[in-house]
Design brief:
Layout (H helix, E strand, L loop, with lengths): L1 H33 L4 H4 L1 H4 L5 E8 L9 E6 L2 E7 L2 E4 L6 E5 L5 E6 L7 E4 L5 E9 L8 E10 L4 E2 L3 E6 L2 E7 L2 E6 L4 E5 L7 E4 L7 E4 L4 H4 E6 L1
Parallel strand pairs: 1-8, 9-17
Antiparallel strand pairs: 1-4, 2-3, 2-5, 5-7, 6-8, 9-10, 9-13, 11-12, 11-14, 14-16, 15-17
Length: about 230
């Protein structure tokens, strides 16, 4: 009889121990999965991907901020975003982008903070970066070896037409674009391609030199090369 009581007591103690171990194990499990202890492992902060940001500023030759300069961001020739300085864009660190700034008012683009004098610059970033466009006042002395290429658009009677899209290219790369009448900063003696487009009631007819191709090649070595006129009908 005594042995039977001892056996029953041992069985009860074994069951209690098993229940206790299951409770403890369950508490640890629920704490690991559902509590804040688990958040560093499965939380969004661990899974999130950093996206670098490119900030673009514009200043004059004295370093004063110029707000409102038009900026475009393109990728593989396709416009992605546009805005006015100061502005910033989030970029995919695995892609190559092109950034172009336009002239406005009494200021014309001179160079980038990285030294490039071409207003369309290519950039790839893996961390936050800042790019600054430096402008000079229109009419101020040009940098040595550079010239201003002008493109006028007129109708068959010689009347000036404004607002016709005009672009400047070199070796298949878009350098700059704006509406006519256009002014582009170029290297003297270098070869460029200028393209004008038709719009509304105006259709391109020919250049003043007789060419009927809307794309004209110029080497900017003479006044004729630096002053182009597109005639529309």
């Amino acid at each position: 009889m005594q042995n039977l009581k001892i056996a029953k007591l041992g069985f009860v103690l074994s069951v209690l121990a098993l229940v206790s171990s299951l409770a403890v194990y369950g508490g640890i499990s629920s704490g690991y999965i559902g509590s804040t202890q688990a958040s560093p492992v499965v939380g969004a902060s661990v899974l999130s991907t950093f996206v670098p940001r490119l900030t673009i500023n514009a200043v004059d030759s004295n370093g004063n901020d110029l707000n409102g300069m038009y900026v475009t961001l393109s990728q593989n020739g396709t416009l992605i975003h546009s805005n006015f300085t100061p502005t910033s864009f989030k970029l995919n660190s695995s892609l190559v982008y092109t950034v172009t700034v336009a002239d406005y008012g009494g200021y014309t683009f001179d160079h980038w903070s990285n030294g490039s004098t071409v207003r369309t610059t290519t950039i790839t970033i893996s961390s936050n970066a800042v790019l600054t466009a430096i402008y000079r006042k229109v009419g101020s002395a040009l940098p040595q070896g550079e010239s201003i290429l002008t493109v006028a658009t007129v109708d068959s009677s010689g009347k000036v037409l404004s607002g016709l899209y005009t672009s400047l290219w070199q070796n298949g790369t878009l350098i700059s674009s704006t509406d006519s009448p256009a002014r582009f900063l170029v290297y003297t003696g270098a070869t460029y391609q200028v393209i004008v487009t038709s719009y509304g009631n105006y259709t391109f007819d020919h250049w003043s030199n007789g060419s009927t191709d809307p794309m004209i090649t110029t080497n900017t070595s003479s006044m004729a090369d630096l002053n182009l006129v597109a005639i529309y009908n």
